[in-house]
Amino acid sequence: MPRSLPARLRAALTATTLLALCGLALSACANTIQDERVAPSFLEPLAMQREYPIYWLGGAFRDLPIISVAHDASGAYTIKYGNCRQGGESVCVTPLEIVTSPDNSFRPGGSTPQRAISVRGVASTLAQNGRTIEVSTGGVVVDVYADSPALAHAASEAMVSINAVELPGSPLPRPQPTAFAQTPLPSQQPPVAPIVPVSSGG
Length: 202
Fold this sequence. Notes:
This protein is an alpha+beta fold. It has helices spanning about 5-20, 45-50, 150-160; strands at about 25-30, 35-40, 55, 60, 65-70, 75-80, 85, 90-95, 95-100, 115-120, 120-125, 130-135, 140-145, 160. The strands form four sheets. Strands 4-5-6-9-13-12-11-10 form an eight-stranded antiparallel sheet, covered by helices on one side. β12 (about 130-135) and β13 (about 140-145) form a beta hairpin.
């Protein structure tokens, strides 16, 4: 929340955000036939996080609702949108994922063909034929994984910090270097569906 805002306005915006989060209907990814509702409190820690921004697309984006929120040991937050397209209970590849990692010293990609682009004023990377966009902004890297280039582009233009007041499409903060290791976090790897063995037919 910008400190330049009056204290009353900051408090009102925080309260409004929390009320909106409490009204979200979330579902679990373990069941792709019938969504299972989980507590709206899953998003409250994200809104209260003050160490670094966490990016999201609201409770739903292009008719894709949030189906899971995860926080790993590295500090990265993963927000998945839409039901599992591949995988199941242990591995779920959704149409759209937004991953915020509190480390911008490593830009994932490896040997995957990449192209440098600009997203809302900051240098970014396009990979996986446009289905992955990696954005360094502030002290974080935001990875957008989508099942189409159009969806990835739209999400990168619309994503905002859940724990600050921002407008979709507004310029993103310039990168501020962090001092973490130069290795990828598990959450910075594109989601992969499990390999199903092919029977020999014999």
